[in-house]
Amino acid sequence: MPEPILVSACLLGLHTRYDGAQKQDKAVLDYLSANDYLPIPVCPEQLAGLATPRDEVQFTEGDGTNILAGSGKVATRSGLEMSTAFVHGATETLEICRLTGCQTALLKERSPSCGVHMVYRQGERVPGMGVTAALLKHEGIALLSEQDIPHSSSAGK
Ligand code: SF4
């Protein structure tokens, strides 16, 4: 029986990104198939109730781990703070994770919600985690991003 795995919806080809685009990654699809995983698509920002397309959001302070601890901030370019919405999206994603019995999540790198190893803070790519990734990790879910999966070419960048 296939094992369920939570996957960032944009990596599967769903048009969930802030700009209305998707980021389908063939290496991710091949990895899921080769390992007999059942992908459970989630977009924490849509689960937060945000529109698509929506304003781009970056960290202005800290990262997702800091936000869960009550310190960091994510905001739109115009300065609208989105931390509460992002925590809500993370909480809804965790609920789906529990409902479907996922023990692992494969998430989109560098997103303020989904980033596993890297995020953007004030325009710079820095080590850190997105808000959803940080919550899932805190709850004991194993995390990987598309960057952890070998790519035969430059696909998935
Ligand atoms: S929040 Fe995550 S799933 Fe949604 S578009 Fe951004 S990276 Fe993809």
Instruction: Give average pLDDT, whole number.
Output: 96
Sequence of strands across the biggest β-sheet: 2-1-5-8
Mass-distribution shape? globular
Sequence stretches where pLDDT stays below 50 over 5 or more residues: none
Report on this structure.
41% of the residues are buried. The strands form three sheets. The chain has a four-stranded parallel sheet with strand order 2-1-5-8, sandwiched between helices. The chain has a two-stranded antiparallel sheet with strand order 3-4. The protein has a two-stranded antiparallel sheet with strand order 6-7. It is an alpha/beta fold and 157 residues long. The mean pLDDT is 96. It has one domain (3-148). The chain contains five helices and eight strands, in the order βαβαβαβαβββαβ. The chain binds iron/sulfur cluster. The site of iron/sulfur cluster has 12 residues, from helix 2.
